[in-house]
Amino acid sequence: MKARVKRACELLQREYGVPRRPSRKGDLTSMLVRTILSQNTNDANRDRAFEGLRAAFPTWDLVANASLREIARAIRVGGLANQKGAAIRNFLRSLKGSHGTLDLGFLRKMTDEQVYDFLCGHKGVGVKTASIVLCFGCGRDVFPVDTHVNRLCVRLGFVPPKSTPDKTHELMGGLLPKGKSYSFHLNLIRLGKTVCTARNPRHGGCPLRRMCPTYRIIGQWEH
Fold first, then answer.
1. 9 vs 42: CA distance, rounded Å
2. SS3 of residue 128 by DSSP
3. Which residues does 6 contact at the CB level (< 8 Å), separation at least 6?
4. Which of the chain's ends, N or C, has fewer CB atoms near its CB within 10 Å?
5. 3-class state of residue 189 by DSSP
């Protein structure tokens, strides 16, 4: 299986290239909040919700001290506003109480395991959110699994058919070549949004079709 995953990495890099990590390190608190807002919505609505939150509350201290109704109003476009608003405010208040700051920069000095333990100990912050902070914010070789990535890993037969995103994250961690988590994550998302879509995937245009069990069962009969 490791060989198959490695081959998939190579084929996607040949198709889409090797994504470069940004040279500047982003604000981890903003990244975490934006990722919470991404749950069960698309990128456009996530970004609109984040912009609405920042417009209404220019600092994280203001968010921490705002009412849930005010926060929900600011992020409503992203859906699940009450749930997400509570998760964001509760996290910020807990962070302020435990560390005296709303800056998550201290995570960069922690091990991966410590970051997972700390972040996932807060309601509304799961493995995917912690993985994104680690991968994109801390530059770690960590493989975030969102809806697109989970769907493709299942279709490619890398994980069991009913694998959850958290289970896929756990299983793929032992299969990916060292240093390829970032590029494979982004290239899978690109493939999942343009070719291997949730509905009506374009099997014939997939660079991984020759190694894909789903293509062998379904896709080949479409051509």
1. 25
2. helix
3. 177, 180
4. C
5. helix
**Cα separations (Å) of 91 from 7, 140, 145, 207?**
40, 23, 22, 41
Q: Which residue among the candidates 123, 128, 162, 167 is catalytic per the annotation?
A: 128
CB 167 within 8 A of CB 152: no
- pLDDT at residue 221, as a whole number: 46
Contacts of 181 (CB under 8 A, 6+ apart): 135, 141, 142, 143
Query: What's the domain range around 83?
Result: 28-137
Establish if 63 belongs to a structural domain: yes
90 contacts 123 by C-beta, under 8 angstroms:
yes
User: According to the 3-state scheme, what is the secondary structure of 206-222?
Assistant: CCCHHHCHHHHHCHHHH
With a cut of 50, list the residues of the chain below it in pLDDT: 221, 223
9 and 41 co-located in one domain: no
Q: What are phi and psi of 18, to 5 degrees?
A: -105, 110
pLDDT of the residue at 24: 67
Which pLDDT belongs to residue 220?
55
| Residues in Cβ contact with 172 at an 8 Å cutoff, skipping those fewer than 6 apart | 5, 143, 145, 153, 158, 159
Q: Tell me how far apart the alpha carbons of residues 209 and 203 are, in angstroms, rounded to a whole number.
A: 7
Q: Is there a single domain that holds both residue 53 and residue 125?
A: yes
Separation CA 31–CA 215 (nearest Å): 36
CATH of the domain at 115: 1.10.340.30
- The answer to whether residues 131 and 196 belong to one domain is no
Catalytic residue flag (residue 128): yes
